[in-house]
Amino acid sequence: MSNRLYPKLAASNLKKNKNAFVPFGLSCGMMIAMFYMLASITGQVTDKMFYGARTMKTVLEIGVRICGIFSVAVIFYTNNFLMKRRTRELGLYSILGMEKKHIRKVLFWEVCFVGGLSLLCGLAAGILFSKLMFLVLLNILNLETSFRFVVSFIAIKETAVLFMGIFLVIILYNQISLLRLKPVNLLNEAKAGEKEPKANWILAAVGFVCLGIGYYIALSAKNPIKAMDSFFLAALLVILGTYSLFISGSIAILKLLKKQKSFYYHKKHFITVSFMTYRMKQNAAGLANICILSTAVLVVLSSTVSLYLGLENVMRTRYPKDVRTDALYMPNEDDGEENSYDMSLFEKAIDQQCTKYGVEKENGEGYYALSLVIGFEHGSMFFPADNLHLDSMYIIEGRVLEDFNRITKEDYTLKKGEVLWFDNCSNQEEQIDTIEMGSFSAKIVNKNKSVMDLEKYLIEQDFGIDEILLIVPDRETLVEFSDAYSEFVYENWKKEDGTVNPVQYIYDFDLKGDLQQKITFCNSLRDALNDAGIPHVGTVTDIFTTRQEILGIYGSLFFVGIFIGTLFLLTTALIIYYKQISEGYEDRSRFIILQKVGMSKGEVKKVIHSQILSIFFLPILLAVIHVAFAFPILKRILYMLDLTNVSLFIGCTIGTILIFFLIYAIVYGVTAKVYYRLVNE
Amino acid sequence: MALLTVNNLKKIYTTKLGGNKVEALRDVNFSVEEGEYVAIMGESGSGKTTLLNILASVDRATSGEVLLRGEKTTSVKEAELARFRREHLGFVFQEFNLLDNFSVEDNIYLPLVLAGKKYSEMIPKLQVIAKKLGILEILKKYPYEISGGQKQRTAVARALITEPDILLADEPTGALDSKSSNDLLRTFSDIHKEGQTILMVTHSVRAASHADRVLFIKDGEIFHQIYRGTVDSDEMYKKISDSLTILLAGGDLHE
To answer: pTM for the full model?
Structure first.
């Protein structure tokens, strides 16, 4: 045979099988384009760009890697599918007298054509759109768009090497699978008829139980620290449950439907129920994969989008005011050293600093604060020494009456030995009227159990743990309480760990002025406070530098999230498309029989649509249910990341689901069309 | 009035590019009386499958008409064709055409379900037919679990359960061994005795010898027909063989 024949033959094969090859080439091209874009953008991010660039670069690099790994998996899966479907065609070649070495050459050329074309088009599209995506990234990060963006030859090389490598391995893989091809088996491809799938009730029940427990854990996880662990456990159980439900639960349900004779023997259900039983047997694992992939996409996208969009919310939760400074107030520990503890020094030093840097201070607020972690159960306090008590763990925020009245514009009065109690606890039922902890005891004169607006009291919400606000008469009582706590911890835990929290004086304020000025102001603020003679200066942090850093992380997470979400979606669409197409071939003969027995074309179309519809939307529907159940626990995890805006998260989740559905529906439309054509050929 | 009348039926196939025209049916005229058992014989390519497809309203004739109980089937609207077939015609195919994902029972129920019948109406019908065809024991089995003869009897049951005006059979014994063929033909004779009209296309002399009347089709025309009269099937077999010999000889001369 002439050598020019093979490329020709390969080209005509591609044309003939365009239903299978076009999506393959398209998805390869898209993955190549996305990989190039991500790689070239990552290459252009330099540390000098902005404050959080280094962390962002790390996130992007991880994104590039995930993108690459995913591409490998998807291309292999698709190729595998194509090869399986074509064994018959290849068998025919060998029966017609082509030797394996000839077929090998044809296969080689096929991959060369598809791979080469998709690499070229993908790179071209990548180069074309990478600038746009770079601008999108800069926009996400609120950066000026003046950065120069150039075509990255390194990224081109990386992309070409990776994907050429993948295609090479695929060529090798196809050669090997060709070796195993026996034409005899293909000729008498026995239509043995499949056994009717048996419902495995035990597995179905296990699935339901796993899903139930997983959902319960997700719903009942109260403590955000535990939420992380619970989340993984719940995810694992839900994954297990999803698989067993799809594999045996679906068949069990269909069997039950079959037993309802008057339901089953109905024009609308008869064929669908019966076909679906077989469908589920072949597709259960694939559908479960799709369901889990979709759930992952929805969770990743909705949370990264919310984190990004909720950045200001995160910042404000972390920083009720722009700048926070504090100093420890511990007159008992000074060991003879005389400290004045004149807290008005804060204001003076800061005002001086403001004049020096040309910025303006606003809403300055100073107050004493004590923040403790405590266990609280059956009305008594204890120190939670282990994770077992996480659910009864609280944060106690101690404040002095004078500060409290000033900040909240209230007018409470307290005598020595009395305290005010506020909490935002959801599950605190015990009625107590005194606080006892070691040597400290006080009477609660006003117990306000209503959920309070913590921000109003200048309290940060740490990790979303339930908080108790205690108002004591003066700062000396606060110190007493702190000391009692230290003793108490030592007695209960026999360990003097870093858990002892002293009383702090906190001074919060907002800043007005030029951003760069504000940042230089903040960078030298600590020295200014020390110089002013304030003892034990503690934290000096500001929203400006942190914001940039967080924006770098969340912005790049969001950016990478979009890429990986798109990849996931692409994969899902591909899997489902190929599944439907391969079934189209199988179902053809069945639909021909149905038409012979007296089914009209319209009825066939209806049956096809209801079948494809259920195959398509079953996994997505379950994925949405998964997401709905995961919502409370995700909310808590985001809480831990200081995102407290629940309605934002709800909005992002719903938005993501809607977009997902939209894209999915388009894939459905295309697939249904191709399927119908196959069946009706 | 005859149950089925075929007048001047003509079918011309045109190749896709519009070049060649092939005349599959030239001018076919015949009729089938109520309760008759008619076999149509002919070689491959003689047009008998085309004829059956037109009778089954799967294919449209180029010209001419088919009347079922005086109603023109050739002018039934496309949208109503499926219903028409379901209500008036029963089919038995060479390849059985059972759905492998349905049990025997469900395969038989299929046309009734498609017609929107209630389950309670369907049960007694199935019982009667399954008993008649001797497939009561295999109702719960699946097509891959039963023999070819059983499959074909299932297909017959599926065709008869709607009580069609006419049973159209396309080479019903074509995929069966001789014992199963004989069983099936006996079944056909039995249901014919009960009054079922049967029109069978075959090239098996054995199969045709069970019919009341045999039509020979050649080059798209009814070439010859013989009636059984009072003879038994062995003699009928001989008569058909003789006719076929003439038919073949004529064919040789013709070429």
So the answer is: 0.75
